[in-house]
Amino acid sequence: xxxxxxxxxxxxxxxxxxxxxxxxxxxxxxxxxxxxxxxxxxxxxxxxxxxxxxxxxxxxxxxxxxxxxxxxxxxxxxxxxxxxxxxxxxxxxxxxxxxxxxxxxxxxxxxxxxxxxxxxxxxxxxxxxxxxxxxxxxxxxxxxxxxxxxxxxxxxxxxxxxxxxxxxxxxxxxxxxxxxxxxxxxxxxxxxxxxxxxxxxxxxxxxxxxxxxxxxxxxxxxxxxxxxxxxxxxxxxxxxxxxxxxxxxxxxxxxxxxxxxxxxxxxxxxxxxxxxxxxxxxxxxxxxxxxxxxxxxxxxxxxxxxxxxxxxxxxxxxxxxxxxxxxxxxxxxxxxxxxxxxxxxxxxxxxxxxxxxxxxxxxx
Length: 364
Fold this sequence. Notes:
Strand 1 and strand 2 form a beta hairpin. By secondary structure, the chain is α/β, with parallel strands linked by helices. Strands 1-2-9-6-5-3-4 form a 7-stranded mixed sheet, sandwiched between helices. A two-stranded antiparallel sheet has the order 7-8. The protein contains 13 helices and 11 strands.
């Protein structure tokens, strides 16, 4: 078992990574119970597939399930109200720990509910998708989607523990795995060129579920995020903003496709990273060969790397318009994360959206 610590003073917590951890969940979660029970927020798909496994792994600990419909529609005001009302009906107290058992939607929703119910109780992340394991379960960002955009209402609320079991990924289809893999690649692009080079060699093994490769990929990615979160917990210094490489473009793509299964979040991040590198080349920040290398790796991994393959070419103005609602907007400008090279992401607050729109019009 691998252990990663996110050092944030009194909000510090451990991330445990290992095959079969959910089957021994009671050993790791016993210290977080009250009256021998845990409130567990999950969605219908995850609970029907993995709920019995978690309950067995908890042993003598009673799991009190709060189940929402699967899909992004649950990450809403209505979904938040349902979870909060359900927790209160179950007698949640501030000393309780709510367990988020599911993908990123469940983690964001359960974490936000925990942040506000009774003015705040604690929670534990048990992510069941690759994307959630390497990204959304770590760092304390919780949120719901609203009419104006994705993740615009939420709170920073750090978990007490993150339990990552790579064996849970056996229930995912290949498309979901590839989408999660995009977030792994992102960490190499931000600050770890040797990790990206390792992924060029071993990415296929990570995707295929080879145990050592998958666990190593997850652990390095989680360590990367933990380091950045420790330096900039609430995204005030700019350091944590680097984690948004590919996301400003990606969120615009998701908005244009209606936050639907037409484009999964990780797929949008992959294409967003390609666009960020291409835009960096156009601005004479990054070498063209690095951008081409990034594109090749995402293509080899089965992820989208062009606007044309999604039917989104030639709509630069529409895509740029979505960026007006980006959370990183400050002083009327959208902050972009660009790249000087593979492994060296940089923040740029001086970019005009009109220039982005023209770039996207030309991109194919």
